[in-house]
Task: structure prediction
Amino acid sequence: MPTLRTPESKADIYPGRYVPLFTEYEVKRELDQSSLQIPALPPVNIVELIDSYRIELAIPGIEREELVAEASENILSISVLHKKTAAGEPGLFKVHEFEYSCFDKEIVLPENVDTEFVSAEYHGGVLSMHVPKARSKSGSFHSTIVVY
Result:
């Protein structure tokens, strides 16, 4: 089980440094070791705008610190490691479909994107990402995307 990293104080979280609960390595290790049946991946909307792409994923019931987003060339990877479950809540579920324990979703974008400057925001159960278009193909790199 991954170790939970906590900041020294609440001031470190907002508006200061972004401190995800888990490292990229911990998320990948947990996904590999998970013997749970992974539910259907969340639905995605991709809209092409004049100078960028807007990507939206519906991921209700998680905290933004449980999201790990990264870019490598024209591939976006979104991972979630959510350990809390709603099973302990009072009441009997008749239908319980939107709970994601952990998943990893990759989105392949056109080659004319600049994934170095991706912005991401998680609000109201929706992860919104803006990926600017590049004038030329950008170089090969790997970066972690901060989710606000």
